[in-house]
Amino acid sequence: MIQHLIVLPVVLPLVAGILLLRSRQGVTRTKRLISVASTALLVLIGIALVAKAAGGEVTYYALGDWQPPFGIVLVLDRLSALMVLLTGVLALGAVVFACAGDDEKGSNFHGLFQWQLMGINGAFLTGDLFNLFVFFEVLLLASYALLLHGGGKARIQSSVHYVVLNLAGSSLFLIGVGILYGATGTLNMADMAVRLAELPAERDGLVKAGALILLVVFGLKAAILPLYFWLPRAYAAAPAPVAALFAIMTKVGIYSILRVYSLVFGESAGGLANLEQAWIWWFSLATLIAAGVGVLAARDLRLLVAYLVLVSVGTLLAGIGMGSVEAVSALLYYLIHTTLVTGGLFLLAELIGVQRGKAGTRLVKGRPLKQGGWLAGLFFVGAVGVAGLPPMSGALGKVLVMASAEGSQQAWLWPILLATGLAATVALSRAGSTLFWRSQGDAMGEALPRRQWFGVMWLLGASPLLVLLAGPITGYTLATAEQLANPEAMIHALFDAPMIKVDGATP
Amino acid sequence: MESLYAITTGVLTACGLYLTLRGRTFPVVVGLTLLSYAVNLFLFSMGGLTTDGAAILDGPGTYADPLPQALVLTAIVIGFAMTAFVVILAMRARSEAGNDHVDGRKREDGEGRA
């Protein structure tokens, strides 16, 4: 059983999703139980995977025992284990929140939610470029349906943009994968790295074209500057638990950039090494500026949080653009923080909107909130965390990212990052004072369900926890960054792994 | 054969791209479909074009690379499902917004006409 642990984050949500699909009508209680149990199990599996990967060992899992590089493999290293655990933690908060009633606003919420988890976990674990495409499609298809959950004009409109853009992105993904396969003759990422090292020079142009086309695709998922216009409307229109889960979706793009370009186009690729860095660096700074403007211009709390997601994307990409071990380590710490806190803020925005009645999440004068004290307190924690003010985890993450900048990078990164932080602080304090202090009339509505409170506190509580546990976590992220910088171990593990035996014995 | 194949793929891509950039949902859906056809053809050619070769390695004779064929099959299935989904989505958008513009509203200056 223990050797099959790696495949469980993909298989478990798949099975849970199928079970959830069987009972179409009613029995909401059973459905919720299955969904929450599956997600909670994913958290436990994530912890087990992190414990397994923490030692630095790279584990391959050959699906169906078809041997690499011909078969499809799953890879477990520190990075993929961390991402799977993060997905589980985020999803648990979102799914418990949804159990308060959001799941009944449309059909098959829980099934789709589980499949989305399957796609996300699969994308994090796969070691095969085409398989990455397939898992992208799985998570995208589920996300299309989840975005539409509950219906309504705004959701359908933003879905049209989201779906069309991502379909075009999928086409580009296939073109990129096709070019790389044509040039190298393999789809396994570690194997591709080996073949790139001994590739004749006349194919360099072809490989470069394929690699940069893939960068466009990952950039679309991660929402880099010219490719982010779908994000604010889609995230603002999505149902709260779905928007919270989508907080990890941009990180799938970031993860793909980290994985593909560190493994395939690492130092061993010769003239093609790190060809993405200069591009990402400048685009990340531009993304930060655009997101800062968006944060100031947003007139709706959900839209504001959506632009804060973009700020985090810009910060993370700047870390990739710098590329040093310290920068990657800092960006991984920031990634954990930003995923959980922005997810929590999406949930919190929903609670605030419900209690304000007609005014909703728009930043205008409205009714006072019935449970205003609690909501305001949570908003304060989330806002301080996401804007990057001490003592929350955002400040620590930002300091780590800034400290890893070297030479002329400092001159570019520091002012832009700090100005964006100021913009976020201004926008959030304006939003908070409008929402909680500028009110008229009497508070109405009912007390909020306990499940929703749990969802919000689970995610926002991560921020102080990340500060308390900063020592072990940064230790882990530093080890992860070192592992990423030395892909030889990963390539070695593929060809010398004990499981690759001709007698077909399963590991 | 190679040049014919390349021209076909190129023309399909160009048509698909043009239609995808149109302002109304139906041309966009058709454009995406054409684009996915072009991508499938492109993927198919990535293993090199071989005529009269089996897709199995049996001895020293010529054989066609079987992997792109498997990839194309996967891509076709996924593309088909996506097309079905986007058609339904376009119809829902049409009925909710009252028109078939991708932004859900017509531009007054007539810029967004299909």
What's a concise summary of this model?
With 507 residues, chain A is mainly alpha-helical. Chain A contains 21 helices and two strands. Chain A has a two-stranded antiparallel ribbon with strand order 1-2.
Fold and architecture overview:
The complex is a heterodimer of chains A (507) and B (114). Chain A has 507 residues and is mostly helical. Chain A has a domain at 276-468. Helix content of chain A is 71%, strand content 2%. Chain A has helices at residues 8-22, 28-53, 78-98, 109-125, 129-147, 153-184, 189-197, 204-222, 231-237, 240-246, 249-263, 277-297, 301-322, 325-355, 372-387, 393-403, 408-436, 450-460, 462-468, 470-485, 488-496; strands at 59-62, 73-76. Chain A has a two-stranded antiparallel sheet. In chain A, helix 2 (28-53) packs antiparallel against helix 3. The radius of gyration of chain A is 22 Å and the shape is globular. With 114 residues, chain B is an all-alpha fold. Chain B has one domain: Helix Hairpins (Orthogonal Bundle), CATH 1.10.287. Chain B has helices at residues 2-20, 25-44, 66-97. In chain B, helix 1 runs antiparallel to helix 2 (25-44). The longest helix of chain B is centred in the last third of the chain and has 32 residues, at 66-97. The mean pLDDT of chain B is 85. Classes of the chains: A mainly alpha (507), B mainly alpha (114). Chains A and B meet through helix 5 and helix 6 of A and helix 2 and helix 3 of B. Chain A: It holds the Pfam family Proton_antipo_M.
